[in-house]
Amino acid sequence: MVDSLKKPNVEELRPGVKSPAKETILTPRFYTTDFDEMSTMDISVNEDELLAILEEFRTDYNRHHFVRDEEFQQSWDHIDGETRQLFIEFLERSCTAEFSGFLLYKELGRRLKDKSPVLAECFTLMARDEARHAGFLNKAMSDFSLSLDLGFLTKSRSYTFFKPKFIFYATYLSEKIGYWRYITIYRHLEAHPEDRIYPIFRFFENWCQDENRHGDFFDAIMQSQPQFLNDWKARLWSRFFLLSVFATMYLNDIQRSDFYRSLGLDAREYDIHVIRKTNETAARVFPVVLDVDHPKFFELMDSASAANLKLQAAGHSNAPTVVQFFQKLPHIVTIGANLVRLYFMKPINAAAMQGKAR
Description:
Layout: E1 12-14, E2 17-18, E3 30-32, H1 35-39, H2 47-59, H3 81-112, H4 117-142, E4 147-148, H5 150-156, E5 159-161, H6 164-191, H7 204-224, H8 232-255, H9 257-262, H10 267-282, E6 288-289, H11 297-315, H12 321-343, E7 348-349, H13 350-357
Parallel strand pairs: 2-4, 3-5
Antiparallel strand pairs: 1-2, 6-7
Helix pairs in contact: 2-4, 2-7, 3-4, 4-7, 6-7, 6-8, 6-10, 8-10, 8-11, 11-12
């Protein structure tokens, strides 16, 4: 019999197959786009760089990397209670995000094959990488007697439609913030191996290079479409997507502080570091970035995350639905108001930021 402290408190589709997490504004999303518009893009202005990136994808530096070794061949019952629950959540969220990328990139590779072969092959090879990541994470879940039915996930999830321009903004940031998340955890655990509770973290150094190359690909695409970056609308959308990605990560991670504590990390300090690094990276392509060093920036983020914790608590109460709504409302208003204030905070001109960096 499995110890009740070690058996994760999760809903199952069938024995050993976890029900997908409920979709919320903070869960990883699945995307679709206007494939016809994507296929007519002229990439000639930056085709040399895209071809160089394609050659890197073809080289496939990590083709032998995602191989489980003997360290995985043991019982993980010592990871129990809330830590086990949070670690399974981490694996599920990461697997879902990687699988979302796989589905989008695979479909783009298929749809663009005849009209834009360079982009089609890039997307197909990125889909290969994302499939490896998702499979490795799903296999890790099986060490905790669970897995995700990725086929069921494909059919059951709702898909968010974004025009190509917005797909580029969103996926660029997703890949780059993924790089900074993985490499930050890896470097911390390299310095503090006693905190490495599970061997998957040893793979993060090479893994994050896949994320970095994918981000560079989207950087190159955007550079090939200057109309996506050079007008007043681009300045507004840059701020919107940066804030969306940062706030989603911050609220999610503060909500799961105990998981990061189990790795010897402070969730808030970790997120601040990742946000600053991703913001600096985004300045290489976006016309403006957020002023994350403004004294109010993380103060407003902290207030929003505190409201989110209260919102989650209200959602888990036994109160009637109507009562829950009124319990949640002030916290929703707080989060919304703080995000509006963050959005309208004066941004930093990326060119000026890059000049200072030099």
